[in-house]
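Data card: per-record layout.
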Amino acid sequence: MRLLYVIIKFICFPGTYLRGFWENLTCKVLHLEVESEGYMRPDEACGHVEHTLASTGWSAWLMAVGPGFMCFCTGSAFFLFGLFDIFYMGITFYDNAVLFILSIISMYLGGSLLCAAFPLTEDILNFWDVAYRGGLKGGNIPVKILKVIGIIISFPVALITRVGAFLEKNCITFLMTVAILVFHIIFVR
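The structure for this 189-residue chain is written out next.
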């Protein structure tokens, strides 16, 4: 499975590289030590940076969710631009060659970013450990109330990110992106 994961990451290299860049940037913002700055490595951390784990709830949440949020937002914009142009607006190569090629490139960039939207399993497990296993220890009543509110608000995003990390690790996000394209080619066109 690791070989397939690395092959897919290299196929989707724009998203893989950009994900690594955003993780590196997030580590710099959070003052986390980056152990290896190579983004395109032939191992299970392809598209990610090796870094020390965050120790506070906020920094662990930002490390697990922040780079993926950026990949999701930009990837959705690129992917939907190309998808709508080709499949819903009906742009063909003969109508407007430049726009058609731009739409194909846009779908590729968007798909590669969407395939890199989730963190490494270690990052999301670190967030779960810091945020949810730490409990409500320490602090007075207002601090405990804020902790409970933070746990309630962050739980849906953490759950989606945890499931997404599993899907990305097992190459299912790539298969879902390909399935969306195949569906549009068969049924929408």
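Known properties of this structure: Residues 57-188 form one domain. The longest helix spans residues 57-88.

See the next section for split statistics.
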